[in-house]
Amino acid sequence: MGIGTSIFLIALGAILKFAVTSSVSGIELATVGVILMVVGIIGLAISLVFMTRARGAVVGDRVVERDRVVERDPRL
């Protein structure tokens, strides 16, 4: 889950918790909103942890030299 998805879940949960006043039979929308906000916050925290860990890593720091490929003329 990325940062954008986490923020979307937090926003959707807040809308369901605080802005929706209608009711659905068999489901409590405020509870669903709280669950979505909690999942979004956990996902955001995990994404930020992975992002800070990846920032310290160096990727591709060495140069690999390869032999030059020379194609032959097929008519020869």
How is this structure best described in words?
This protein starts with a helix and ends in a 21-residue tail after the last helix. The protein has a domain at 3-55. It has 76 residues and is an all-alpha fold. It has helices at 3-19, 29-55. The chain contains two helices and no strands.
Oligomer kind: single chain
Estimate the global geometry from the Cα principal axes.
elongated
Sheet/helix structural class: mainly alpha
Distance between the termini: 56 Å
How does the major sheet shape up?
Answer: none
Helix content: 55-70%
Average pLDDT figure: 86
Distinct helical segment count: 2
Question: Which keywords apply here?
Answer:
76 residues; mainly alpha
Condensed summary:
This protein has 76 residues and is mainly alpha-helical. It contains two helices and no strands.
Could you outline the blueprint of secondary structure elements for this entry?
Elements: H1 3-19, H2 29-55
